[in-house]
Amino acid sequence: MKKIINDPKRVVDESVAGFAIAHADIVRVVTDPIHVVRADAPIAGKVGIVSGGGSGHEPLHAGYVGFGMLDAAVPGAVFTSPTPDPILAATKAVDGGAGVLHIVKNYTGDVLNFETAAELAGADGIEVRAVVTNDDVAVKDSLYTAGRRGVGGTVLVEKIAGAAAEQGLSLDEVAAVAERVNANARSMGMALTPCTVPHAGEPSFTLAEDEVEIGIGIHGEPGRERIKLEPADKIVDRLLHPILEDLPYASGDRVLLFVNGMGGTPQIELYLAYRRAAEVLAEQGITIERSLVGNYITSLEMQGFSITLLKLDDEMIRYWDAPVQTAALRWGR
Amino acid sequence: MKKIINDPKRVVDESVAGFAIAHADIVRVVTDPIHVVRADAPIAGKVGIVSGGGSGHEPLHAGYVGFGMLDAAVPGAVFTSPTPDPILAATKAVDGGAGVLHIVKNYTGDVLNFETAAELAGADGIEVRAVVTNDDVAVKDSLYTAGRRGVGGTVLVEKIAGAAAEQGLSLDEVAAVAERVNANARSMGMALTPCTVPHAGEPSFTLAEDEVEIGIGIHGEPGRERIKLEPADKIVDRLLHPILEDLPYASGDRVLLFVNGMGGTPQIELYLAYRRAAEVLAEQGITIERSLVGNYITSLEMQGFSITLLKLDDEMIRYWDAPVQTAALRWGR
Amino acid sequence: MGLDINWAVDWVRRSADVVSEHRVELINLDREIGDGDHGENMDRGFQAVLPKLDDLPAGSTPGDVLKLVATTLISTVGGAAGPLYGTAYLRASSAVGGEVSLDGNAVAALLQAGRDGIVARGKAESGDKTMVDAWTPAVDAAASAAAGGADAAAVLRAAADAAAAGAVATEPLVARKGRASYLGERSAGHRDPGAQSSALLLEAAAEAASNGTSA
Amino acid sequence: MGLDINWAVDWVRRSADVVSEHRVELINLDREIGDGDHGENMDRGFQAVLPKLDDLPAGSTPGDVLKLVATTLISTVGGAAGPLYGTAYLRASSAVGGEVSLDGNAVAALLQAGRDGIVARGKAESGDKTMVDAWTPAVDAAASAAAGGADAAAVLRAAADAAAAGAVATEPLVARKGRASYLGERSAGHRDPGAQSSALLLEAAAEAASNGTSA
Ligand SMILES: Nc1ncnc2c1ncn2[C@@H]1O[C@H](COP(=O)(O)OP(=O)(O)O)[C@@H](O)[C@H]1O
Ligand SMILES: Nc1ncnc2c1ncn2[C@@H]1O[C@H](COP(=O)(O)OP(=O)(O)O)[C@@H](O)[C@H]1O
Ligand SMILES: [Mg+2]
Ligand SMILES: [Mg+2]
Ligand SMILES: [Mg+2]
Ligand SMILES: [Mg+2]
What we know:
Chains C, D: Residues 6-207 form the DhaL domain. Chains C, D: One of its GO terms (biological process) is glycerol catabolic process. The complex is a heterotetramer, with 2 copies of chain A and 2 copies of chain C. Chain A is of the alpha/beta class. Chain A is 32% helix and 25% strand. Chain A is built from 8 helices and 15 strands. In chain A, strands 1-2-5-3-6-7 form a 6-stranded mixed beta sheet, sandwiched between helices. Chain C is 68% helix and 0% strand. In chain C, helix 4 (62-76) packs antiparallel against helix 5 and helix 5 runs antiparallel to helix 6. The radius of gyration of chain C is 16 Å and the shape is globular. The A-C interface holds A 33, 54, 76-85, 107-109, 112-113, 115-116, 138-140, 144-146, 149, 197, 199-200, 202, 204-205, 217, 219-222, 224 and C 27-28, 31-37, 40-41, 44, 74-84, 121-122, 176-179, 181-184, 186. One magnesium ion binds at residues 30, 34-35, 37-38, 79, 179 of chain D. One magnesium ion sits between chains B (54, 79-80, 109) and D (35, 37, 79).
């Protein structure tokens, strides 16, 4: 295992400590229990937004703490949901009296730990609502399973709900916007290479030199299907078509096209994939209103990418365009 | 070779085509000869700034085209300096009558091709000045060699000179600012893994599972020294000390600390490295006034990182903080 | 012969040991069909419990130990396993209340409450390829042993053996809950890591009971 | 017997062939001490020249062909090799002017002008481990062959052999120019890719001359 680390057990603490110094203008970091809070939290009268989950997906979530997006992020151990304690601490830290929204990716661990924290916060008199993101079409949705994973759509939910909260909407309204974004977002990913969890020391799976995983998640979990490497355009089609069919997206729709790198993918490849995705959408009569291309929700050093489509409405566009000032997403200020 | 590409010969064209669609609000792309121009170029009375070089270093340089930074970028083939034609075309496209600054990384190919383009532009009546960046302390500087490479410092030169030009400084003044940034910047990098140039199909070098390259460049060229993998803090020290001794940076200095990923490095590792660098600077009485952490000048999918220090003065800070609106660096608007 | 506080403490110490020993094995099982952290998570949790055992006030009961395990796992493990095991130990603690010595029936009730806690939190059914598939046969075996008049140690032995068999029996299953469910059919052919850790913990309980650490 | 336009065109075609054949070899040499693009760069350049040969107007001279190569390489190769070779061919073209047939002395002058162009642009000295280390011995060998009365083909043969030896002789050198200089001592033990491509191009020139393509 080759990593720029000192000790597998200290990776998250040391990295968050660096993040705290580098972005002291935007965030404050509390180390015990570890959570990252917007420098000016709590903001009286504003709905607080907290997200979190296992580490290894950076810039998600700490990179999205700041004006117009999250009020706090709770980083767990690598690929391990945080426990309720830091989630509760973060929830209290950002409560400005208007309630707190938890944005939770749909993984059993995240859901259970956030649930517990929400219960405890409720007992302390803080009103908490949770929105669970589950946009990954690679996983079959069913009442009898753990359901779909929350992946790329989570970033979009955090940005748009964050803007809604910043503009003073109520907890119910912010939660409704978040739900609408999640309901209109679909994603699918693939990997060229696996990743290695520091404490595991071994790659999450192995792939032959000519194989790729289709339908990969963001935790180094193997995907649904292993195929031979194909040209980029074919791979894009393989990800995009299940997405398009699922909602479904239709001619005339306006969308945000999000091409996301898994952490080890160079930009040159992401834009190349973006080109094909844009071409397919144009053929289908779908208009790209907004774009996001880069490593925004990752899986350590994994090479690969995911595509997320979000069907937009005017309100979502307005919130997407609203100013945001975080370590990883910034515009308008 | 595993890459998200269609054909090694079309990588740059297809990627730039994607970039053009994704950032149509910021840039315009001309395909023959290929160059990327700020959407509102030329700006009358403003010094134009053009940079460029081989592709594979994204977001450098196209990602820095936009308000407050570059007016044009010229992407060559992967790791191959562009020819004079597109440099000349870009120079003409951004000439607003106040002259054009070329920001050139110190590689023989870049220097020669930009030189030729500048000569041709001069013959067309455009005043061109060139600033050659050479901040890499891993390479011994000498009159008798090709000299130091231009690496991380280039990003800082582009931002700060870009702001100076945006604020209306003359060509001589912008060039002087750019020279001053370059003169006060020092960098050094390392790699955990090599990268693979698409048309070569084989990694640029091979490293054993326990080896790393110290003093790596950004073209997959092997570094100065191959050592056994060490803890992150030791590696940071190994890069930072030659940097500190070179200028030298001294107690009381105010600096910008830039921890840059080589393309395949996850953020969690970059911030971990940043933490140690900040610790060392604090011990030395050097104040970190500004920070930049991320994949900003890369070497395809290489894993590794570089550290750049820039000794700041008030003017540089003002230009650093000035609004910028590019695909890869954005704040203040 | 009932099981007292010494048994409970010994169970925890043995649990920490066995999880530590099998850390890599659990990580590897989880790498195959999950995200490779189960061994690390469980190890972190039980190592956090150990020092707290020393601070247990005099007169503590088995139920107090179980509660200590519950709260520590909840606040240190994270992931799916943290809340699930946490709830199991919490419910188990409630089930035994303030009793100072547990007989066969009490142990059977303890296990049943633990299993029910896991199901209440995780909503998994038998055959979903989760830790429930180790706990449910264990609970059933414990119940029949207790009904047959077995003492506490014998009840735990029956439970441990059934849990071990249950863990093995998860191998052919297609996962419907937890991270392995994302793999669909490809999850078959691998043992569920949580079922395996459950078997290890129940084995530790049985060994602590048979090893005469109880009064 | 002088070398005319047919020789010049044949030289270019052979150059394109030999560069294409040795593309991977040149890439590999450049991977070892550079950035792995030299073979690709040269191949792209000469492939771009080929179609333009068909458009040469009647009455073109060897100098016209050299100029066409120069401008095409400059506008398609990029990197260090593009401007350096471009300048070499441009200066070589000037050196032969409008002559329609080149004798031994003219060929020696052509090579000398080419080498001087490379040095003027790149500022490398002999022993810096660059293409100059193939060109300089070639120019010297050509000059003495011409001085000894050799015909154009024999001058090119002498130059080609010397260039080949010069390329081999770059192996032990420590690079002081170009990308390989960043490696310092570690650049020793590898042949310079530009010296190797230069040797290939001069060999192509000699073969075109000896192959009776000249009038
Ligand atoms: N809904 C559930 N009900 C019962 N057990 C579950 C459920 N989901 C997951 N598990 C158990 O949790 C184990 C995984 O734990 P762990 O790896 O620590 O957490 P995570 O899946 O969050 O990484 C699985 O092997 C399974 O036994
Ligand atoms: N200053 C120089 N003078 C002469 N030749 C040089 C000089 N710098 C580089 N070269 C030649 O250029 C070759 C590399 O060409 P190429 O790989 O195409 O360009 P780049 O180094 O820009 O990738 C080297 O092998 C060397 O022979
Ligand atoms: Mg996990
Ligand atoms: Mg090159
Ligand atoms: Mg797990
Ligand atoms: Mg090269």
